[in-house]
Design brief:
With 220 residues, the chain is mainly alpha-helical. It has ten helices and three strands.
Length: 220
């Protein structure tokens, strides 16, 4: 039997994994948990996974047969922990995109303290590229600091999901949405694009198993 303390910690890991990766096999999540904590058994881990009330969370467990054709049974530990947006619309197009894009990519696994920061669905790393982009937006004379920061965070949210067909389209969508929110760069469109482009390359994404684009390029 797992203690309440262990159950609460496991819940934190489930939420953090859903936010950092979008989707991850349960056996991989167990491997990560056991590498950073007192190990627990597969049986106890699965019992917890089956008991958690996912209706109160922003994730669920998904079997291969729910997504792919010609799959008839998924072993319990091979099910996916999947973020809500991957199944909420009734299809699994984005799920399949992440699955195909992460083939051959190892998961980015930070230390325990950093991993658990992702329990907060709004958390992301404030990289030097993000700070530079935010400073540029803050420099626009018609925006308050609070409004500028809100727009910078919205750009991050648009880029992080990376759901457009290609990266240029994703960047252009994020910029267009920022404009709709009130960003006017007054003839500095090329500088804005450069800053968003650099930020995008250093942003951790679900389509890269938690890695950045630059980190993935170094793998191959």
């Amino acid at each position: 039997m797992l203690s309440e303390e262990t159950k609460q910690l496991l819940k934190r890991y489930f939420n953090a994994a859903a936010n950092l990766y979008g989707m991850i096999r349960l056996y991989k999540l167990l491997e990560i948990y056991n590498s950073q904590n007192e190990p627990i058994s597969e049986e106890d881990f699965l019992a917890f996974a089956d008991e958690i009330d996912s209706e109160k969370e922003h994730f669920d467990l998904v079997s291969d047969e729910e997504v792919f054709e010609d799959v008839f049974e998924t072993k319990p530990l091979s099910r996916w922990l999947a973020a809500e947006y991957l199944y909420a619309l009734g299809d699994f197009d984005d799920f399949e995109k992440i699955f195909e894009n992460t083939i051959g990519i190892t998961y980015y696994v930070p230390n325990k303290k950093k991993f658990l920061k992702y329990e907060d669905e709004f958390y992301f790393e404030k990289t030097p590229e993000y700070i530079e982009l935010r400073a540029f937006i803050r420099s626009m004379p018609d925006l308050s600091k609070e409004r500028a920061d809100s727009i910078a965070e919205e750009i991050e949210a648009n880029l992080s999901l990376d759901l457009c067909e290609d990266e240029d389209e994703n960047i252009e969508y994020a910029i267009a949405n920022a404009m709709r929110l009130g960003l006017n760069v007054d003839g500095q469109e090329r500088e804005l694009y450069r800053l968003v482009f650099e930020f995008d390359k250093n942003l951790r994404k679900h389509v890269y198993a938690g890695h950045t684009h630059k980190e993935v390029l170094m793998m191959f």
